[in-house]
Design goal:
alpha+beta, 4-stranded parallel beta sheet, binds adenosine-5'-diphosphate, Rossmann fold, binds magnesium ion, 9-stranded antiparallel beta sheet, disordered N terminus, Dna Ligase, domain 1, D-amino Acid Aminotransferase, Chain A, domain 1, 370 residues
């Protein structure tokens, strides 16, 4: 028996039916959880990742270990799948361009271009009348001095590209010597952001279908420790109006990007004024959405698969009060305690080495109303 040629899986509406193959750029835990959700719906996944033994390989139908600039391997990968998605926003523009020649890339190149550079991201948001921290670009010490003049102190300096979990960031307090900032940004393109005083951080996660339909998950509240997400809780402790505002903003962003898939928007909330300030975008499923696996009618991963395959979106209501906790580094070794808790849902990402701060797994508690 031969495999069904990939064109046969696409109808006139460009729907990819169960049985089709999803290509995923990136082989970490997000790719792994997309692949698990895809398998439930009858899709196969082919993972493309430069690192051997990536967590997603263990649960996928096929994988390619190759560099993101290996044009031959990228083309072969894209030809073998019906749609390509990604689990991280730093997919190089050239990689996106190559795969898009052979398979639809969802979300598209525009979402990557906007979100992988903090300057283009904030510029885009402000163009769409979405509030962000005030910002100014800099690279050199002289430019940093003028940026501080413009933005004032306190402020946060961040490299424009490749930052995550607070890496490449420096806080400038009121009387601090700004020269030290250059030790962190090291002359790379960077931005200075005004420091936002906020009461809580939330995530608005929405999915946009190929039809243009948008479904928002309930707003989740995030607590970070050492710049790494520690817990997410749902419902977020915000007023109804703030919840509505956050969902409207995320929907507006998804529409403006003509987005297909799950989009996460991190926001700062001021309780007294109800101000919602957008911090950053992630054009993908997100750690703050892991609670949806057991805690929502449809998980963020299934929702992403539905969206990129051209299927209708699923319902998004929460099934109770939910807490998700990341298992970082050696936390993962305490698994017995979690298996002894009948209310806990335990996730292990299949990584070997529990290095300090490394995301090894997570646990979720769902408290349903009796
Ligand atoms: N302008 C700001 N004002 C106040 N706090 C900030 C600001 N920018 C970032 N932070 C804090 O630092 C954290 C990490 O910054 P973020 O821009 O989200 O970078 P990363 O890409 O590392 O997640 C945020 O979750 C928030 O707690
Ligand atoms: Mg962040």
């Amino acid at each position: 028996m031969t495999d069904v040629p990939k064109s046969a899986t696409c109808s006139a509406t460009d729907m990819i039916a169960p049985g089709g193959t999803i290509g995923i750029l990136g082989g970490g835990q997000l790719g792994r959880m997309i692949a698990l959700a895809a398998a439930k719906l009858g899709y196969k996944c082919h993972i493309y990742c430069p690192e051997e033994n990536s967590p997603a390989f263990q649960v996928a139908n096929a994988y390619t270990v190759a560099a993101y600039d290996d044009e031959t391997r990228l083309a072969l990968f894209a030809k073998a799948v019906d749609v390509v998605t990604y689990e991280f926003e730093n997919v190089p523009a050239q990689t996106a361009k190559i795969v898009a020649q052979y398979a639809p890339l969802r979300p598209g190149a525009r979402a990557l271009e906007v979100s992988q550079d903090r300057l283009s991201e904030k510029t885009f948001l402000n163009q769409h009348h979405i509030t962000t921290a005030p910002f100014a670009p800099f690279a050199t010490l002289d430019e940093l001095r003028s940026a501080v003049q413009k933005i004032g102190k306190p402020a946060v300096a961040k490299t424009r590209r490749m930052g995550y979990d607070g890496k490449g960031q420096a806080l400038i307090k009121n009387r601090e010597n700004i020269d030290d900032v250059m030790d962190v940004t090291k002359g790379a393109d960077a931005i200075l952001e005004g420091f936002v005083t906020f009461d809580r951080e939330i995530s608005a996660i929405v999915a946009r279908a190929k039809s243009g339909d948008v479904a928002a998950f309930p707003i989740a509240e995030n607590v970070h420790t050492n710049h790494i997400l520690a817990t997410t809780t749902v419902p977020a402790n915000v007023k109804t109006i703030v919840e509505a505002k956050a969902k409207i903003m995320a929907t507006k962003i998804a529409n403006a990007l003509d987005y297909i898939g799950v989009l996460t928007v991190e926001m700062f909330i001021s309780d007294a004024t109800g101000t919602v300030t957008v911090n950053e975008l992630a054009p993908r499923v997100h750690n703050s959405g892991h609670w949806t696996i057991e805690g929502a009618e449809t998980s963020q991963f299934e929702q992403h698969v539905r969206a990129i395959c051209g299927l209708p979106l699923g319902p998004t209501d929460a099934l109770g009060t939910i807490t998700m906790k990341n298992l970082l580094g050696s936390d993962i070794l305490d698994f017995e305690k979690y298996f002894n808790d009948p209310k806990v849902h335990y996730h292990h990402y299949g990584k070997k080495h529990p290095r300090k701060g490394r995301k090894m797994g997570h646990v979720t508690w769902v408290e349903t109303a009796k």
